[in-house]
């Protein structure tokens, strides 16, 4: 059979939405109207963006590209001039010199006549002087793990004065008169019959400190979960998608600045570039003689009208400044996005590796406690009078602590899994389960971006407030000066025809007096404006 002719041709299948250029997926080629400052970012192509927030992200259409090109576009003439005056600078090299000197190791004279090294004896003496419990009562408290005596503070002091295995062996080998031993040797000799005394006290100390450590770790896990929840781009109880909407505007800006280069046409970008926005400045400092200077204006609110003022000559707008302006003017619902992501502020600077170590430490403490009950101080190899009191004191705590830890472990596992999954959704590189550096990088990128934005926003608002105050002061000064001039003009002195006739005469005393009166009225007007502003401000 014959194939279909032109009239019967099968129409081409339309591209799916994700493949349409200019909205989502593959980005169109952009040709900036002038050469732009580059934005060096980790570019994500369409394939790399699949399964992330970038895959179906629509470009906002109201980003002020003309202003972007004006501020961050280069000027060939200025660029040529700058090349002539900018020299090739060098970075100072060399490293820091370590002048700490050497340290001298203390030698423990285990075979000395005094049995224990003098320096060690001095340190232990200081420690046991704070214990102030008779030896027989202290030994009984350790064997029975008496919580009334062995408080957390007391146990901490006690553990700092425990003998080492070598010191125990030394005092146990002494076959002389015990009464001739010093206080430290007698103290060590009192502890010697108690099996695994250090492990006993460590298990007891773990029970005493578990609740506080567990609550602290649980609190930090909750903060991490809340922060990651605020970043979740999927619908939920948190402000979903707000960061994604802000990033979409950064993407448009970056793609325009990188238009025509290998960095352009990005479907997404790695978030570490967000920390660079405050450092990417306009191509040239603002110049009073620039023909297009009026485009770089910020308006200050005035009671009567909006009074424009220009950035100071020599200053440079950064990409972060541009983003602040863009959100305030074109996407006001996003202008305070950093305030809507408050849970992230609470984990700024949190050491996730330390949190992981703290969670693991609680698990390790439970395992050591269980092992001590079964094979250590509570094991069958110990004498019954030493073994049974320890088991009676410690065994009831083991089940309670294990149950609490299981709850914490579940929270920690869920927080880490959710954090890694969220980081992947934003296109961050994750090596595998438990990749804590990836989570830390992800959170740091976002929190640093929020803080940089907050500072830029506050700086702009302060600038606008200062301009508003200056405009009000100037307006009041004009009003007072005008009123003073009007009153002066109505005075018999100023109405004098002879004064008007001789006003231009520099040598005429009446003319000089008239000009002095006007100057005085101008000064009075300015002073009156300042006083009125102070009364308005309550100062």
Automatic annotation (TrEMBL):
Residues 26-479 form the FH2 domain. SUPFAM superfamilies: Formin homology 2 domain (FH2 domain). Residues 498-510 have a biased composition (Basic and acidic residues). Residues 1-25, 493-516 are annotated as: Disordered. Pfam families: FH2. This is FH2 domain-containing protein. It comes from Pinguiococcus pyrenoidosus.
């Amino acid at each position: 059979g014959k194939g279909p002719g032109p009239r019967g041709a099968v129409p081409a299948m339309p591209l799916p939405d994700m493949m349409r250029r200019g909205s989502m997926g593959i980005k169109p080629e952009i040709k900036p109207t002038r050469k732009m400052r580059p934005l060096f970012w980790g570019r994500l192509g369409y394939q790399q963006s699949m399964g992330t927030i970038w895959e179906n992200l629509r470009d906002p259409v109201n980003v002020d590209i003309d202003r972007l090109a004006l501020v961050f576009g280069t000027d060939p003439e200025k660029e040529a001039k700058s090349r002539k005056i900018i020299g090739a600078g060098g970075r100072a090299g060399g490293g820091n010199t370590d002048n700490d000197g050497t340290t001298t190791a203390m030698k423990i004279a285990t075979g000395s006549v005094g049995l224990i090294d003098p320096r060690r004896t001095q340190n232990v003496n200081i420690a046991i002087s704070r214990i102030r419990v008779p030896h027989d009562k202290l030994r009984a408290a350790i064997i029975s793990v008496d919580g009334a005596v062995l408080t957390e503070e007391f146990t901490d002091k006690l553990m700092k004065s425990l003998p080492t295995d070598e010191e125990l062996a030394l005092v146990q080998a002494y076959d002389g008169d015990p009464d001739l031993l010093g206080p430290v040797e007698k103290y060590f000799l009192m502890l010697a019959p108690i099996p695994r005394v250090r492990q006993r006290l460590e298990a007891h100390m773990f029970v005493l400190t578990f609740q506080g450590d567990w609550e602290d770790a649980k609190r930090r896990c909750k903060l991490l979960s809340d922060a990651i929840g605020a970043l979740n781009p999927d619908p939920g109880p948190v402000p979903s998608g707000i960061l994604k909407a802000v990033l979409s505007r950064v993407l448009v800006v970056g793609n325009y600045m990188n238009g025509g280069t290998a960095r352009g046409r990005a479907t997404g970008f790695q978030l570490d570039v967000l920390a660079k926005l405050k450092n990417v400045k306009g191509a040239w400092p603002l110049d009073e003689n620039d023909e297009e200077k009026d485009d770089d204006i910020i308006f200050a609110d005035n009671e009567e009208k909006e009074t424009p003022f220009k950035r100071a000559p020599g200053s440079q707008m950064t990409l972060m400044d541009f983003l602040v302006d863009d959100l305030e003017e074109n996407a006001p619902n996003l202008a305070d996005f950093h305030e809507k992501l408050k849970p992230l502020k609470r984990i700024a600077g949190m050491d996730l590796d330390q949190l992981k170590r703290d969670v693991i430490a609680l698990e390790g403490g439970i395992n050591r406690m269980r092992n001590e009950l079964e094979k250590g101080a509570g094991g069958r190899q110990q004498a019954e009078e030493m073994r049974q009191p320890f088991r009676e004191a410690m065994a009831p705590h083991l089940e309670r602590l294990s149950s609490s830890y299981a709850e914490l472990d579940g929270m920690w596992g869920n927080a880490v899994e959710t954090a890694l999954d969220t980081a992947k959704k934003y296109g961050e590189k994750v090596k595998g389960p438990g990749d804590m550096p990836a989570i830390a990088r992800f959170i740091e990128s976002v929190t640093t971006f929020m803080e940089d934005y907050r500072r830029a926003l506050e700086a702009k608002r302060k600038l606008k407030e200062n301009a508003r105050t200056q405009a009000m002061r100037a307006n009041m000064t004009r009003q007072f000066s005008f009123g003073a001039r009007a009153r002066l003009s109505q005075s018999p002195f100023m109405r004098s025809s002879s004064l008007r006739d001789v006003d231009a005469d520099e040598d005429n005393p009446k003319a000089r007096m008239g000009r002095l009166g006007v100057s005085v009225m101008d000064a009075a007007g300015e002073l009156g404006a300042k006083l009125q502003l102070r009364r308005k401000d309550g100062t």
